[in-house]
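A favour, since you know our structure tokens better than I do. Could you add the entry underneath, on a fresh line?
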Amino acid sequence: MSAMTDFNRIFSSDNEKIKLYRRLSEDKKARRKENKFTIEGARLVSDAAAEAIELHSVFFTEAAKEKYGEALELLFNKYPPRIFNIISEELSRELSETKMPQGIFAICSMPDISKEEIYGRIGHGSRILILDNIQDPGNMGTMLRTADACGIDCVIVCSCCDIYNPKTVRSAMGSILRVAVISDDIGHAAEEMKLKGIPLFAAVISDAAVSLTECDFSRGGAVIIGNEGSGLSSEDASLADTQLTIKMHGTINSLNAAMAAGIIMWELSKRREV
């Protein structure tokens, strides 16, 4: 099955599978309509297989087959031959969003996870990140990757950029396939935290806020992180039980949103009850 002649060969950019890949890469509405997104690179495609994500199409060049043969063999043994397609180097360069493409691409299904399922799963002791109006795909991907590393139980995105934007997927380095992520309204997310008895914190820049190092996360907690430029609105910050801040030295008064979220998630996770 792994012989090169066993797979469909695509050399035209007018191929329907190629056109679908492009639409999904470029258009959020297309991703939502099809309930699919794109991934690029041997590592991400292998991670999708490891997480049992449904793959609809896999594209690779002959050079990629030689260089990443071991990773592709795992896919060949797990998925039906009909999803695999050999593409030309020219098509690989056209599809890639990186300067040095590896020559491996895939279309996969979005994880089938609902708000109801996640809210039914969390409770006392849960560690949750609530992202409010995060707009930079790179920041979003970094936060998801950090949430994965810190063992955050779920991430709730409220009025944020699309988590399946290719830049976000790339920045998350596979974590988007492992972290439970749901979209919700900030007000409803806050209500759910209170119903579940999960302490709700809002990250702000204020001398009146509680220092992060003095916050009690022994019962778990949910922390709201605001927009990269404007932070949290006063209305959204007021939803929290406690407003927290990262005390800083010198004249610095703020951090990159992804960096601040990482520091907060570390503090949130390291006090997890044994």
The chain has twelve helices and twelve strands. The first strand starts at residue 8 and ends at 10.
